[in-house]
Amino acid sequence: MDPSLSACCFTGHRPEKLPWGADELDARCVRLKEELFCHVEGVYLAGCTHFICGMARGCDFYFAEAVLALRQKYPEVTLEAAIPCDTQANAWTANERRRYDHLMAECDEVSFVAHAYSPGCMQRRNQYMVDRSSILLAVFNGSAGGTMNTILYAKRKGLKVITVEI
Predict the structure, then answer these.
(1) Which residue stretches of 46-160 are H helix?
(2) CB 52 within 8 A of CB 10
(3) What is the pLDDT of residue 6?
(4) What is the average pLDDT across 59-82?
(5) How far apart are the first and last CA of the chain?
(6) CA distance readout (Å), 59 to 5, 72, 78, 155
(7) d(CA 93, CA 100)
(8) Are 135 and 7 spatial neighbours (Cβ–Cβ below 8 Å)?
(9) Is the pLDDT of residue 52 over 90?
(10) pLDDT of 103-156, one tens digit each?
(11) Those residues with Cβ within 8 angstroms of residue 154's Cβ, 6 or more apart along the chain or in another chain
C-alpha cells in the first residue's frame, strides 16, 4: 500500500439536511449510495484499506454500509467506528439504533473520543478521523455546519478531499 494513503475518513449530512430526508428509497438517495460505493472502491483501488466513520445517522450509515459491501469483495478492508461519546445513539429511534448496533458489530475497531456527551465532542470526533487519514470523502450540500467544518479542517491538514455534492 502507498504509505501516503493510510486511511480514508468520511463526513456527511444527517437526514434532516438531505433533500429526501429519511426516505432511502428515493431515487436520489439510491444514486448517492451507488456513487459512494464507487468512490470507496476507487480509494481502495488506489491503495487505501482502512476506513473511518463517525457512525452518525444518514450519510455516515451509507458510507459504513458501502465499506462493508466493499469488504465482501476485498476482505483486507477494515472499518473503524469513531464515536464522539458512548451515548451517541441513545435518543435515536429503535430502527436507527438497530442499524447502528448492526454496523458497530461489523466494525473492526471502535474508538471513543469521549465517554459522555459534551459541547464539541462531535467536532473532536471529526478531528480525530481527519488526523488519522490521508483522504476525506464528503457528502456536502454547501451549508454551514459540522460537514463544512470537517472539510475545511481536512484541507488545512493537507488531506485529499473528495466531495460528492447533493
Answers:
(1) 59-73, 94-106, 121-131, 146-156
(2) yes
(3) 84
(4) 98
(5) 31
(6) 22, 20, 18, 20
(7) 10
(8) yes
(9) yes
(10) 999 999 999 999 899 999 999 999 999 999 999 999 999 999 999 999 999 999
(11) 9, 11, 130, 133, 136, 138, 161
